[in-house]
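Hi all, long-time lurker, first post. I run a small reading group and we've been trying to get comfortable going from sequence to structure in the token notation. Rather than ask abstract questions, I figured I'd post a concrete chain and ask someone more experienced to write out its structure so we can walk through it together at our next meeting. Sequence below, copied exactly:
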Amino acid sequence: MQSVGYTNTGLGIILACGNALGSLTGPLLTSMVSRGKARSITVAYMALAIQLVCYFTMFALNRVCLLFSVAFVIQIAFCYTVNNIDLDIYAECINRGIRIDYGVARGCGSFAFVCMSLLIGPMLNRFSSRILPVIGAAIVFCSCAMHCSFARSLRSLDAGGPETPAAVKKHDALPIGGFLAQNRLFAFILLSIIITCTGYRVCLSFLVNIVYNAGGDLNYYSVIVSIGALSEIPFMIFYSRLFGKTRPFIPLIAAIGFFVVKQLVLAAASGKALILVAALLQGPSYALYASAIVPFTTGAVSSEDAPLAQSLAFTTTTVSYFLSGVCGGLLFDHLPVRNAVVVCTGLCIAGTALAIPSICILESRKKSSV
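-- Answer (accepted) --
Happy to help. Here is the structure in token form:
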């Protein structure tokens, strides 16, 4: 985006708008699926098709203009929509007795991200940033193929017998408003996590600025991003083995704590070495959080509301991206890089101070009600 001609503030506004739209479309469409008004696979195909149109539009325009900005906003929004729907498909598979190791699946995603990060750096140097929409379109086609495979698997289950009790209950799921009113403490936990993740996401979205400020370049930035993604893989792949017998709130609290540790390391970074350390902390922070929030959410609500709860839990990431887009561009345009990172660290600490006690209270209530 910056190579096309957008400023940090302009990029931040676009990221904010895309994440704001995604935070609405994802839960709304998932709620429709949960109440039986739409099929998850159909919604996924629709979102992927919209993304494809956006990528072609961005490739054709390749300049700062309203249509390019709108296409980018919609692409971001429906990228998150696909992720929300995929979580619904995951919950449906679990309800039907299909065992999927979520940590391994996320670990494969991180490995793919590492490969793309290592490939994109040299490709940008050779072909320019205009190749990015082409790469995005290729990824969408691959995603379509994978969703086709999911669709065949689910159709074979449907053909094998009558609708399962879990599938019947799915039609009795609460709408979003009713769910939030009935699960207020869970909603407050998500709000606290949004605050924590916003501080974390600002630094992640504008990491290239932090790297340049520490004396690095674009190649070092690509290496840092790859190392961060690599550090995620062990925590995701081995999550079930390491924490399978542990109550999910324990690794979740640990992950939220590591968000703060990572931010403190970035705030203290005056050279490239500590940025490398912060990248290595992406595993015990984000990767552990992404793996722990799924079983924690499933256990925090009723089975009928689990798909919507998973969608809302994922939407915390989307909303934090929205807020980081709004705040990040302004912070890094108007403050020195170090000061901007310190502000984000304070935000992360504040969210953590709210989230951890709330998680403990929810767990104590669950334990007393058993």
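A couple of things your group might point at:
The domain at 8-159+171-361 is CATH 1.20.1250.20 (Growth Hormone; Chain: A;).
The chain has a mean pLDDT of 80.
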